[in-house]
From TrEMBL:
Transmembrane segments: none annotated. One of its GO terms (molecular function) is hydrolase activity. SUPFAM superfamilies: Galactose-binding domain-like. This is Glycoside hydrolase family 2 sugar binding. Keywords: Hydrolase. The keyword NADP does not apply. Pfam families: Glyco_hydro_106. Gene3D superfamilies: Galactose-binding domain-like. The keyword Hydrolase applies.
């Protein structure tokens, strides 16, 4: 299926969905270079999901998208995770509900009275096993199932008698199960395993069992088939595919399904229930235990794939749709059963230490991109940006895009574009990278960047010489030894980090694929693709087929490296420890014990080109000797590092994508393993319409058969370098811009004239709270001792620790429930006005206040109907002109709300917009005259602490005498906002990320004195959250 290379966000449908607004938002996306969208039903949606009205709105979106040749992608749940059809599956078939497996383990000694309480549940196993010499004797046990009974823990009193003679009743509730047992002589270990329905699950209260094929089939019937009924004519045309999200086997301590015991017996001929104590208890060095654990986890993974992935994949293919999404990766081979597999990563700000490689498979780009490569998937996606918050900038986005692209991600699904950020919706794992952000004006540059880079490298082949075996089966068998499991996981992660840092590209290969490797002339091949080296990270086991293939590769002289630990657990019917002892002449059990106790392990050459590296950090120094790299990077300082790069090959030209993910400048040399006559020309490729091609001078070293060129990096800077091969006819192409003749540093330290594009808000975000209660004949009030922030009343009561009278409701024979009584909440805050010669607007959002309400300003009543729609920062803004109500000095604003629900109250800040300045004096907010001068980026000092929009900084510059050519203006400071440069009011260009450099023709600077203007965008953090980022500490700070 033909899919464009553009950004495709989650479009959160989270409000009053209006046809005109749908059309407007799609038009905005198209204008900014967005290639499509996932229609994501999201909390706050005000039309019934999967109703006739819902499909009408989706149809409107499809028709609008067609006009712009944009792609529409569906999302299969409301809101998430996928599988329950917003609750419909369980409503129709309660038996499809997921069950939790839980357990308790208790030690007992002879004559000890044991009493173990568990929730009301189905007891699967209750046994006391004999313990002798600190070892459990698994064939000596006492079945305790008959020692379990039921109790009631809650005592209930009610006055609701059947007759006039008695109204008092006594009941009990909250039943539970109890095991009571007196231990016989000796030592015992008691195991209690029990299962109960999943409760308190987000959104739905419970969830389906995704290992149940019938449950998933009903999910498809109640969601996918409905889309087919209404929109099937667009499948494979405008509608490209459907996204599934977050679904995985339900797990607390162990993944579980009520179906597993029967499936385990069918698959392995064993009683799973009886094996549960061994699964959770046996030591990692116990041979029998390793096999059972492996069988259990493999069954869970295989069953999930059969039940969930394969059913949905088959339905999608039958209906000409692509099955795409991201969810926990159980093992990388699972991704074979998605058309576009994905991950969930990229939730940091530039300047933080980038989590380029994650221990979490679901957030590891290389796991997904490697699987996509081996299973020949069209693309690999990343759901990115959620929870970065409203401080996110385009620099943050570009920084994340860079290190995801570097690792093979080529389809980006930003989380999210909000249809509405009204009320509490703005806190739905923000930010919205959409029109709510002031920098959205410049989104086209980011869209161009992503599309151009992916389009160019997609036609090339990555130069990958290394395979790294996925150690997932070792994590399975060590799951109950947290220290060892984490060590294996961290070491696997660290190996990948070292390879990236050393500029060695690699694929992660699942053990199920290792058996397909071949040896040809001492090189490793997979499907005719050649690799130089196979790395086996610390493992406690390998699947038999994978192990036998690795042994075969070693015997045939291929380069194989074991790191840290050798396989010693027997997970299939094969004694791997014995075979390794005979084959390599070492005892893997001894190595494993040294590894798990952090003892020193020496590097060893085993056989032919097979080596063992005991210390993972030694890989950094060994890799150059083991594997020839196509590209390497050297630095001026021997201690410097951080540049990451990958190499792409093509017939006529190659590409080098090279990034600086750090917040420091870097000066380095790039060494390419080419002969002097193989390359005609090297140049950086322009990736946005404002970039220009620049040729790179290089040196040849015929002795070393290398080409070398120097590169300077600003913080977070990246390049796509094109290497034109000698087979391409030389041309006399000249750069668009000559090499700069003069550089001019823009100093941001001195004061500038500054102005703002839109009105300046005072954000009222802390309120004194008073509660008025009317309890029958008694009226009284309670006042908070500390100010509260806008949020639902239940959370404000908790924050301020306010005691409220309780109200109860009851049902016959059941415990009383405590509820919130009805009362009036009065929120009050003062502000001061020092200058009032202009217009003032009181601004709220449509959902700022829940409950019946009115506002008092200096005693004047303002009703909801008095507000009019007027856009300030959102299409849902409501405003009231308070110019005549404002007075000099102290002003008092109160919001009075009648509370009837726990989520009523003042939910968002209230704003006063004007063209005045806003200042904090003696812990009070003052509105005064807006300064006309200020320092760059000093928003608080400049009187615009909560401003969101564009700020213009202007000054007159005295230019020196210039020859013809160009001047390059540059900002050296580490900033992260979008900056547009104007000279004498003529637009020069916008820089949305590092480097902040503009080349200007000298004829524009012919006059000695020029008007120099910088237009700078903000984020929404200050307005929405009343916070700023502290750049040095990289932390949020309240204004």
């Amino acid at each position: 299926m033909n899919i464009n290379f553009k950004i495709k966000p989650f479009w959160f449908w989270n409000g009053k969905i209006n046809n005109d607004e749908i059309a407007e938002q799609i038009a905005q996306m198209h204008e900014k270079g967005i290639g499509g969208f996932f229609i994501h039903p999201r909390q706050g949606l005000e039309i019934p999901y999967l109703s006739h009205e819902w499909f009408e709105k989706v149809s409107v979106a499809i028709e609008c998208a067609k006009k712009y040749n944009m792609e529409v992608w569906l999302y299969d749940e409301y809101p998430y995770p996928s599988g329950i059809s917003a609750g419909e599956v369980i409503a129709q078939h309660p038996e499809y509900q997921a069950f939790i497996l839980d357990y308790k383990i208790v030690d007992a000694k002879g004559n000890e009275e044991i009493c173990i309480e568990i929730p009301m549940s189905e007891v699967l196993l209750a046994r006391a096993y004999k313990v002798r010499n600190n070892a459990i004797i698994w064939n000596e046990y006492i079945d305790l199932i008959d020692n379990i009974g039921i109790i009631y823990k809650e005592h209930i009193y009610q006055e609701s008698g059947l007759t006039f003679y008695n109204r008092k009743r006594y009941f009990v509730g909250d039943n539970a199960k109890v095991l009571k047992w007196k231990a016989p002589k000796g030592e015992w270990k008691i195991f209690l395993f029990y299962q109960y329905p999943l409760k308190n699950f987000k959104y739905f209260g419970t969830f389906i069992d995704p290992l149940n094929k019938d449950a998933v089939k009903l999910f498809i019937q109640t969601t996918h088939e409905k889309y087919k009924k209404h929109l099937g004519h667009e499948f494979g045309k405008t509608i490209k595919g459907i996204f599934t999200d977050e679904t995985a086997p339900v797990s607390v301590k162990l993944p579980w399904s009520k179906l597993l015991p029967k499936l385990f017996e069918q698959t392995y001929g064993e009683n799973l229930i009886e094996k549960l104590p061994q699964i959770i208890c046996l030591d990692i060095f116990d041979t029998a235990g390793s096999k059972i654990k492996y069988q259990f986890w493999k069954l869970v993974v295989d069953t999930f794939i059969e039940s969930y992935d394969k059913q949905i994949l088959e339905w999608c293919h039958q209906n000409n749709l692509l099955y795409v999404g991201e969810k926990p990766i159980l093992r990388s081979s699972q991704l074979a059963f998605m058309d576009i597999p994905g991950i969930d990563a990229g939730h940091q700000k530039a300047g933080d230490i980038p989590q380029v490689v994650s221990e979490n498979y679901r957030a590891n780009p290389k796991i997904a991109s490697s699987a996509a490569h081996f299973y020949k998937k069209e693309r690999v996606l990343c759901e990115c940006f959620h929870s970065i918050g409203w401080s996110m900038t385009m620099q943050d986005m570009k920084w994340i895009f860079d290190w995801l692209i570097l690792q093979g991600i080529d389809m980006f699904v930003p989380h999210a574009f909000y249809y509405s950020a009204d009320g509490l919706k703005k806190h739905d794992a923000p930010p919205s990278a959409f029109f709510q952000m002031p920098w959205w004006k410049h989104q086209k540059a980011m869209s161009e960047y992503v599309e151009n880079i992916i389009k160019m490298i997609k036609n090339c082949k990555r130069k990958v010489d290394v395979l790294v075996v996925d150690p997932i089966t070792s994590q399975w068998t060590c799951f109950n030894d947290r220290k060892v499991k984490e060590k294996i996981s961290k070491d696997f992660c660290r190996i990948q980090q070292i390879l990236l840092e050393e500029n060695v590209d690699y694929y992660v290969i699942d053990q199920s694929l290792v058996g397909s490797l071949e040896c040809r002339n001492q090189k490793i091949y997979y499907d005719n693709e050649k690799f130089e080296l196979l790395i086996i990270p610390p493992v406690t086991n390998l699947e038999k087929e994978a192990y036998m293939k690795i042994k075969d590769l070693i015997l045939k002289g291929c380069k194989v490296v074991f790191i840290g630990c050798l396989p010693f657990q027997n997970i299939e019917d094969f004694d791997v420890a014995k075979d390794i002892s005979n084959f390599l002449g070492v005892n893997p059990m001894d190595i494993a014990k040294a590894y798990t106790t952090d003892s020193k392990l020496n590097n060893t050459v085993f056989l032919n080109s097979c080596i063992f590296i005991g210390n993972i950090e030694d890989l950094a120094t060994k890799i150059d000797k083991i594997c020839k790299k196509p590209v390497s990077v050297s630095y001026e300082s021997s201690n410097d590092r951080g540049i990451l790069c990958v190499y792409f090959e093509n017939t006529e030209h190659d590409f080098l994508f090279i990034i600086n993910p750090t917040n420091e400048k870097k000066i380095c040399k790039v060494h390419l393993n080419f002969n002097a006559d193989e390359i005609n020309k090297i140049y950086s490729v322009p990736l946005t319409s404002q970039d220009s091609e620049e040729e790179i001078n290089f040196e040849n070293s015929s002795e070393k058969k290398q080409m070398v060129f120097s590169m300077d990096f600003e913080p977070f800077q990246s390049y796509l370098i094109k290497l034109e091969k000698s087979c391409v006819k030389k041309n006399n192409h000249k750069n668009n811009i000559e090499k700069r003749a003069f550089q001019y540093k823009i100093s941001l330290e001195d004061p500038w004239k500054f102005s703002i594009e839109s009105l300046n808000p005072l954000r009222l975000g802390r309120w004194n709270l008073k509660l008025n209660f009317n309890n029958e004949n008694e009226q009284y009030s309670v006042t908070s001792k500390i100010p509260v922030a806008p949020k639902p009343i239940i959370d404000q009561l908790e924050e301020a620790k306010i005691a409220v009278p309780i109200k109860t409701k009851s049902f016959f024979g059941c415990p009383k429930e405590i509820t919130l009584p009805s009362f009036e909440a009065i929120y009050t805050t003062p502000f001061f006005v020092d200058a009032r010669d202009q217009k003032f607007w009181l601004v709220i959002e449509d959902e700022s206040i829940k409950g019946e309400w009115f506002i008092l300003l200096n005693g004047y009543t303002i009703l909801p109907k008095d507000f009019v729609p007027k856009r300030f920062y959102s299409h849902t803004n409501l405003a009231y002109d308070i110019s005549n109500l404002i007075k000099l000095g102290e002003n008092q604003l109160s919001v009075c709300v009648k509370i009837s629900k726990s989520f009523d109250g003042l939910l968002t800040p209230i704003y006063i917009f004007s063209m005045a300045g806003v200042f904090k004096l003696n812990d009070s907010w003052h509105i005064g005259k807006l300064p006309t001068q200020g320092c760059f980026g000093k928003d608080i000092e400049n009187g615009i602490p909560f401003y969101a929009g564009f700020i213009k900084y202007e000054k007159d510059l005295q230019m020196p005498s210039l020859e013809s050519g160009f001047v390059e203006f540059f900002i050296e400071d580490n900033i992260d906002r979008c900056v547009s440069l104007y000279i004498n009011d003529e637009f020069i260009g916008t820089r949305c990320w590092q480097p902040y450099r503009w080349k200007v023709a000298s004829d524009l600077l012919s006059s000695k004195k020029i008007k120099f203007t910088l237009e700078v965008s903000t984020s929404m953090l200050q307005l929405f959250e009343g916070e700023v980022i502290e750049p040095k500490m990289h932390k949020i700070k309240t204004i």
